[in-house]
Amino acid sequence: MPDEAWDALLARQARPTPFMRLAYLRALHASGSATGATGWQPQFVSLWRGNELLAACPAYLKSHSYGEYVFDWAWAEAYHRHGLRYYPKVLVAVPFTPVPGSRLLAVDDDARALLAQALRALARETEASSLHVLFGDDADQSALAAAGCSARTGVQFHWTAEGDTDFAGFLARLQREKRKKIQQEQRRVREAGIRFEARTGAELTDDDWNFFYRCYQLTYRAHHSKPYLTRDFFTRMARDMPEHWLLFNAWRGDERVAASLIALDPQRRAAFGRYWGAVEHIPNLHFDACYYQPLAWCIEHGYQRFEGGAQGEHKMARGLMPTPTASSHWLAHPSFADAVNDFLAREGEAMAGYLDELHEHAPFKASGAADPAP
0.85 cut: is pTM over it? Predict the structure, then answer.
């Protein structure tokens, strides 16, 4: 499929992201990161009228549930206990990338509805247990609901610009104890002799990428797992999508000790926390490299949103607010479909209450409020 046709369709959507560019998806496949051998068999679906691309989406036949960040392990276990096969399943998602955005790319709602029906047909043809569309937008949710899918709500933590002109201004809006905690953490990082250097795009050298990948591998090793992404994937990113990357190197003297890689959408002024690692443990360095330095950079460069990635209530204390995410699910087995729908209804009510509770504990001062006297 031509990149131009896919990317032009992506640009028409309500919530396009760089991760849905064909170059990004192709790099995942060509680098050996997301392939049939790793449990991600590409099954992309597209609808055409002559030479015009009407709709398309990245779909995979999955043999496991790793790298998705919307968890259905309990569903798979229930199938297994009843002697049923849960895998393969059909998944529409960006592998290893829990960034919300448009998934069912379409010229209009009618084409999107046809694409949703085509996904149901793909699940039947491949004898998959189910269909899952992760981190989609409102238009995706509507089309999939009409196609018989059930909605599921999750939560992430995002920062949005509120007129701050510098990081100090951002800190000033936080409650006193939250602000002091951040200042204390940054001071301890400085006292450890750490300084940061930010590089973007073509400024990044092979040496930068090699050091980052070493750190990335160490993060997975610390959790006794294997990295999802190969070194070749990042080689392709440096070559094909350099404008979408920001790297923070943490230096102690003339030695690099950590790296944090941030994805950028320069056109829409959005940034996405993605990967990090360090060659040694330095207290509070993770928070500074992954949150404070990127937030300061975003404010300085006029970015409007920073997404902190999957999970993590601790991000709220650092100025990232709870944001609902959405996914859609269809199970072929009628009894299991009923059970999952009942579960999703109860989970949805609990999630709504959880989001309300999180907002009640927002880290920012009330509008116009002054800090309490010490």
Answer: yes
